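# nightly structure sweep
# worker-07 picked up a monomer target from the shared queue
# config: single-sequence mode, recycle default, output format = structure tokens
# input follows
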Amino acid sequence: MPVSSCGPPTRRTALRTAASALLTVAAAPATSAASAALPASATPAASATARAAPSVPVPPDPAAVSPAKRSLIIAADQATSRVLLLDPATRAARHKEGTSLLAALATLSPVWTWAPGADAALAPLRPDLTWRNVSEAKFRVLRGQDHVVMCASEGFAAVVAHPGGAVHWAAAVPRANLHSAELLPNGDVAVAGSTAGFVRVYAASAGPRRTEHAEYRLPGAHGLRWQDAAGGRLWALGRDRLVALSVGTAAGLPTLTEVFAVPLPDPGGHDLATVIRDKDRMWVTTGKHVHQFSAGRGAFVPYDQAPEVDRPQVKSVSDDPYTGRILTVSPQAGHVCTWCSSTISLAAPGGTETLPGSSLYKARFTAV
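# output follows
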């Protein structure tokens, strides 16, 4: 993007804030079109069978995945400057309750949204300037409470409770081109600035506006991911390498120490995310590919879905914790935002989810 520009899944509760948005559903050729989920017991053979089935424009049966065990999609939308929480299953529910098939397929309402808005407590951070080009949104858990971790390219970063929206921590980090943020188990917050070339860990556990931080230099810093294994490591993705950082404390403030580094198979590191169904592994996207990396092996490894998923310029990648289905977001040809898309691509099985009028930069599955 131009300069102008971790806990286990828990049940998301009290999803009450609604906002309207149009959604069209388009299936990849020879797929079961509007399916939003593949049963958790599916095997590669079962997936192949699904792909061979004729396209049928019918919403998925909500019984295919238990309502108590389904995934939502959290997205960073630069058109509305909001974080959106989307529930594809609402299409099927509305159809089953009597909404016409056409209407059920054509609409999807966010079940939760967030933006700094008119919150007076955040005014000193100048969100009118710093909350531009939303570049990250992900769910994390802190002390048993769901939180959303987010940042924007122009410098605003925050962690807010879900669904209530109470701000755990927020700061403005100007001239850094923030591309990712991460919540650490103790409540501190990491951010990655691609133009500034750094990873910082802020002492957010000490207060909601604390700006003291540790810094690690990483050219092209784009992705962050906390891993609980091995005593806890903060993984960071830069332009040319992937690093593991040990987070410590000194005089009550965070410290960062590199403990591992590996060159990327190709340059242009962009997104870094947990492979939910195998937490030893990470998704790593670059300018040309979508890779998987095994922390245990310390190496990049092959994965079965590569023929469907591996392609250039993927801004975000995520797998559904219940079904294994994979979503990616890539720049859309002809879009008014040259690094954004209105379409989320799905694999295993294939399909798409399109939110007209949106400028999605990243999207991720998150468990209910």
